[in-house]
Amino acid sequence: MNRKIRKLISLAAAGVLAAVQVSSVPLFTSVAADDAAATKFPYTIEGEDMEGAELWDKIYQTELPGYSGKGFFYLTAKPASFEVTVPEDGMYSITVHGAQILNQEGRQQAVSINGVKYTTQAAYSDEWKDYDFGMVRMNKGVNTVEFICEYGYMAIDTVTVSQAVFPDLSKASGTTCDPDATPETKALMAYLKSVYGKHILSGQQEIYGGGHEVATTIRFDAEKKKCVDQDGKEYKFDEADISTADDGSKFVWKCFDEDGQQYSYQTQNRNYILNDYNYEVRYLKELTGEEPAIRGFDFGSYCPCYAWDDGVARRMIDWAKNKNGICTASWHVNVPVTKADYTLGEPLDFGRTTYKPNTDFVTANCMVKGTMEYDYFQLCMKNLAAELKKLQDAGVPVIFRPFHEAEGNPSNTQDPIDGSGAWFWWSKEGAVVYNKLWTFLQDTLRDEYGLHNLIYEQNLYAWSDNSAKWYSGDDKVDIVGYDKYNCQYNRHDGKQSGTPNEDAEAGLFYTLNKFVKGNKMVSMPENDTVPSLKNMTVEHAYWLYFCPWYDSEQEHFLCGKEYQDPKTLTELYQSDFCITLSELPKDLYKSGSGEQPKTTTTTAKTTTTTTTATTTASATVTSVTSSSTAPAETDVKYGDANCDGEIDMSDAVLIMQALANPNKYGINGSDSKHITEKGEKNADVDVTVKGVTTNDALRIQEFLLGKLTTLEPNGK
């Protein structure tokens, strides 16, 4: 079966993946019967019983009554550890019942899992309380959990290791925060919602402004007013674009071929060059055989100081309309380094502008009429709106990511959201001003310029507990994102610096999900190394999309061996989990494109089980009817776990829910849709294991995918 068909069929099973993400039981995974050495979870150990731990019953003169066991372990100069054994690679949660009485403002703590460090901020408490150390990756076999002495000075009464309970990604909104969004924008948002938590969309950022230059033989013939190359081919240009060089010679800044390809004038060589914006996408096609579903763009070239048209709107329209791709765009908009150097509306050399915080440009003044900053930012928004209007008129929606990487490094002052760790001018004055600027831009684009083709993506940088305070709110944001740059820093893979870091960054994924209470989809709009397929699936880090940054002379984020392993990248692109350009639905921008198509259902008239399903572009089998006139037990309808008369994905889902949460979905469970005694009989379709297990859910899935012809226990 070819890869395309396999991926389409895999969409049929995606509903099961999404529905059981809240489960602590891995999908279709069971512990081997002979794996007697596996630790039983949840597992709790007394702090003083850890290897290397010393017994304490008070912290110097401070009593901490209420501990369990003989006392507790106080993490100071010596580490302490213990081991657990797990049957498969997977995610586990670590909770410390402890106290931290040294620092009122909190103190960082660290735990190491097989040498890989995870940190958390332990709040002050002079009473015993639970501290969540988050989810950690454990590997099949024996794992060492060690509390290490970096900051420490934490009392540890007990440590509990539990199987991870994953967030319910299905609750993320698929509705745009702009109620007046264009039909194309709403359709795209619905599609993103339909794949979130089931697949990852591939993405790639193109170079913006100049870059990837290719020299041409085009020259401007001032006498004949023609742009022509050495073969005599002529190129179009706007006569109003004719300029005069210092030596008096004439030239035009840009010209175009019959396909609209732009060629830009180089003052040094007095010829025209082509910026090869397709460089990264072409590389991916040659490497993997596929192109990315999402292409990243930037509107940075339209800064008022040096505004020039790099053709980004034209390329975005071509990508969406002719290639059927998805567009995302950031906005690296510059401001003058020194306000006194700039005259409103006049050009300013690029070197005297910046998007970094090293400027006397007052961000808060962007919203104060009568200030230089207000007038300048109005020009910024006007230039931006002109490009976005071209896209809206062409029916092209955009995942728009302005003012990205909001927090930068966490602030190191008494005010944790003052912007002292900011990397950009738009956030250097802190979270309050940043959020006002976000709202100001959004309101202006909507109300003044009538732009409703934007899906707003806010790029939080989730390194601290205060990152959530940079969030502008559910009513102003559609997607939240995290930029993964960790080949040299913050590694969890235990490998040396300078090698690709294929971390799934599950901890940050869950952190962002928690920040927005699960209400928004979580993406990876920039990255160096792409997370590996195995890491994402094992850790359930189901990012909406990934998008490596472009290659430059300084960094080769896509082609550089220090950033990408070609085998890992190819494996991901060719996997069922990853969606590429050719696999996007043809009706992507039409209403209802995000909904899974329904299938036809027929009832067989014979005594054997028959399945009928129509496979379309999304290949989702939503309903298969099973009929048997003479079953082994007349009251059993094999596979129909929810007793609704049909065999479909909801039966496999109910089995998984009942196993993961029996109090809610098991027999006599609290949920109205819990499995019944009859449902359990119907569900027991695998004779190799007694009773209902994950094997039964797997067998139902195989039946729906056509791998089995019957669900009767002895059938094939």
How would you describe what is shown here?
The protein has 716 residues and is an alpha/beta fold. Helices cover 21% and strands 21% of the residues. An 8-stranded parallel β-sheet has the order 13-23-24-27-28-29-30-31. Strands 1, 4, 6, 9 and 11 form a 5-stranded antiparallel β-sheet that branches. A 4-stranded antiparallel β-sheet has the order 5-10-7-8, with no helix packed on it. Strand 23, helix 4 (312-322) and strand 24 form a beta-alpha-beta unit. Helix 1 (3-19) packs across helix 10 (649-660). It is globular and about 90 Å long. It starts with a helix and ends in a 12-residue tail after the last helix.
What is the global morphology?
Answer: globular
Number of strands: 32
Cα distance spanning the termini? 20 Å
Poorly predicted spans: 1-6, 8-34, 595-633
Category from helices, strands and their pairing? alpha/beta
Largest sheet, strands/sense/barrel: 8 strands, parallel
Mean pLDDT: 86
The percentage helix is 10-25%
CA radius of gyration: 29 Å
**Order of the strands making up the biggest sheet:** 13-23-24-27-28-29-30-31
Count of separate DSSP helical elements: 13
| Percent in strands | 15-25%
